[in-house]
Amino acid sequence: MVKLRLKRCGRKQRAAAVYRIVAIDGRSRREGKDLCKMGFYDPINSQTYLNIPAILYFLEKGAQPTGTLFDIFKRAGVFYKFRKKFNY
């Protein structure tokens, strides 16, 4: 199963690193090979960049977001666009 999750990147000693939003096989580890990079999340500066078409594509195919990404997507209105695209 494909999961949408956060992948840590940036400096190792930094208290809160920058995270990439990726689609990855659910059985692989956090730093494993990703299928697609779909944006980034910086919790310190509260910056988020989302590639909405790529996210909608993977959600359409049945990918499951993690809890943190679910909250990020909800704040960005991704699920509203997902429902609108499929007339839910």
From TrEMBL:
Pfam families: Ribosomal_S16. InterPro entries: Ribosomal_bS16, Ribosomal_bS16_CS, Ribosomal_bS16_dom_sf. GO terms for cellular component: chloroplast; mitochondrion; small ribosomal subunit. Gene3D superfamilies: 3.30.1320.10. It is found in: Plastid, Chloroplast. GO terms for molecular function: structural constituent of ribosome. It comes from the Eukaryota. One of its GO terms (biological process) is mitochondrial translation. Keywords: Chloroplast, Plastid, Ribonucleoprotein, Ribosomal protein. NCBIfam families: S16. Belongs to the bacterial ribosomal protein bS16 family. PANTHER family: 30S RIBOSOMAL PROTEIN S16 (PTHR12919), SMALL RIBOSOMAL SUBUNIT PROTEIN BS16M (PTHR12919:SF20). HAMAP family: Ribosomal_bS16. This is Small ribosomal subunit protein bS16c. It comes from Blastus ernae.
